[in-house]
What we know:
β4, α5 (129-134) and β5 (138-140) form a beta-alpha-beta unit. This protein has 17 helices and twelve strands. Helix content is 37%, strand content 12%. Strands 8-7-6-9-10-11-12 form a seven-stranded parallel β-sheet, sandwiched between helices. It has helices spanning 20-24, 48-57, 70-79, 104-107, 129-134, 143-163, 165-172, 174-178, 184-193, 213-222, 241-247, 255-261, 281-284, 304-313, 332-339, 367-385, 396-403; strands at 36-39, 59-61, 87-90, 116-119, 138-140, 205-209, 230-234, 249-251, 264-267, 291-295, 316-321, 356-358. The protein is elongated, with a radius of gyration of 25 Å. Keywords: Oxidoreductase. Residues 197-337 form the D-isomer specific 2-hydroxyacid dehydrogenase NAD-binding domain.
Amino acid sequence: MAEPTNTPVPPATPDLESDPMARSAVPQPLTPKRHTVLHIGDPIKYNPNTYAEFADAFKVIRPSAAERERGEFIRALKERRWGDFSAIFRPFWGSGGEMGKWDAELISLLPHTVRVFASAGAGFDWVDTRLLGERGIIYCNSGLAAAEAVADFAVAMIISTFRHLPWCMGAATIGATISPSSPEDSFRACHLLATAVSHNPRGHVLGLIGLGNIGQQLAAKMGSPAFGMRIAYYDVERKPIALETQLGATFHPTLDSLLAASDCVVLCTPAFPDGKPLLTASTFSKFRRGARFVNVARGSLVDEDALADALEKGGISAAALDVHAAEPRVNPRLLRMATDLVPRDGQTHPPGPGRVMLTCHNAGGTVETHEGFEELSMRNILAVLRDGEPITPVNLGFLKKVEDGK
């Protein structure tokens, strides 16, 4: 059996026998709820008022953690244990994914009544959005809620690639652990040598691969007078001229063109459903020599060994990665570059110490982001099941092809 729905507790029931006025105030029975929503993952935490509206509008069923394991989840769908539900609601990234990849095996078992799948998180490489679209199911992500947090984090990573922050921070802290007898050696080396490879971001070209919500916020922040970078971008579809003018962004019709023109490249585009990398040895060879690279998108978009090769050969001078191809494991070659704090043979660049910043998929991780994940996911479902327009759909193109008979 599924766990009871986590509908907010109603107010105390009035005593009808002792209070005649309360009897007249009792509402009429509600009409049966038309739609059922399958809530996978933890109970909501941040938006009780919106959830009260949500639970009032729909019958909400939240399967237990055991029922969300793939084998049991498949059995439940085959048994139609939860009936003909209309929506799937996943409010958090850290739970609700126990069943694994949403592929043909799972999607084929969904009842024909499902109209929308709204999930936390910006990435959707774990779900076949094309197949959902072909089944008439709108997939909505929550990237909009994470955009500001990711862009803020990317600002720090961009600065890191220009100022070699892993080296500067590590030499003052980790250096004492590496050389306890003479911790001042790593401190002095960094103080003297980091200057020769550090630069101000101002006036340099920031190349954005993707000018969606994150890319636009990043362009606004780094192109502002505060940082004074020149903004360039590549996207599969060119943005309106008005937006380019507002952001001071120059469009490049090809990825190769953007890479050749950029002093720092930031990857901020969704992952591809096929999981193939966008940046490979071939594309890294197109970077301007000595350019920098930041990834706040998906680790699967980058051939990390090719990136390590480019760093070792000096084609790329520094990198910062918040996401990794084999999370939670980090590429061992990049890890060595992040933790090597001692100059080799008197050289700092290349190969140079501490030229890689590595973080643990933290870019979107703020309380405000998770508040937004909850709210936006519920609002998407409310909109679709009330026959309105989804707020953040990602696969409408696939639905349109089906509707057009293509």
